[in-house]
């Protein structure tokens, strides 16, 4: 028995094939092909009805940005790759900021220790940094 997701995938593939065949029929339309075209359009409508019936069986959340990718003519599978690339870039940026703050803290503590040795030793004792 196939899963609902596999079933949806099969219906979508049949729908795409139907659309492809309709495109071929319409691009080289001959009057004697009207019955075939009508049958294909009816199959298309039936396929959409079947797909609509399946919507309650499947719980998949698709980010709206994926649809933007499709509208722009880009491959939706690249969306994940782009998200990972953006996350890596942001991660490196944040890591750089963290390193900068650590260096700043270290330099600040050194300067404060030189200027206020008694107060900083009390501070370190309270914090447990000794």
UniProtKB/TrEMBL annotation:
Record InterPro entries = Mediator_Med10
Output the superkingdom of the source species. Eukaryota
Localization recorded for this chain is: Nucleus
Specify where it is mainly localized. Answer: nucleus
PANTHER family reported for this sequence: MEDIATOR OF RNA POLYMERASE II TRANSCRIPTION SUBUNIT 10
What functional role does this protein have? Component of the Mediator complex, a coactivator involved in the regulated transcription of nearly all RNA polymerase II-dependent genes. Mediator functions as a bridge to convey information from gene-specific regulatory proteins to the basal RNA polymerase II transcription machinery. Mediator is recruited to promoters by direct interactions with regulatory proteins and serves as a scaffold for the assembly of a functional preinitiation complex with RNA polymerase II and the general transcription factors.
Which protein, by its recorded name, is this? Mediator of RNA polymerase II transcription subunit 10
From which source organism is this entry?
Anopheles stephensi (Indo-Pakistan malaria mosquito)
Q: Which gene encodes it?
A: MED10
């Amino acid at each position: 028995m196939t899963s609902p997701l596999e079933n949806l995938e099969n219906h979508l593939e049949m729908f795409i094939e139907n659309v492809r065949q309709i495109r071929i029929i319409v691009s080289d339309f001959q009057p004697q092909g009207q019955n075939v075209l009508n049958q294909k359009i009816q199959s298309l409508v039936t396929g959409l009805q079947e797909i609509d019936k399946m919507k309650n069986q499947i719980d998949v959340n698709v980010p709206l940005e994926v649809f933007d990718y499709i509208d722009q003519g880009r491959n939706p599978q690249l969306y994940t790759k782009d998200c990972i690339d953006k996350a890596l870039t942001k991660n490196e940026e944040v890591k750089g900021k963290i390193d900068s703050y650590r260096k700043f803290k270290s330099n600040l503590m050194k300067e404060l220790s030189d200027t206020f040795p008694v107060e900083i030793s009390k501070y370190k004792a309270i914090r447990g940094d000794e």
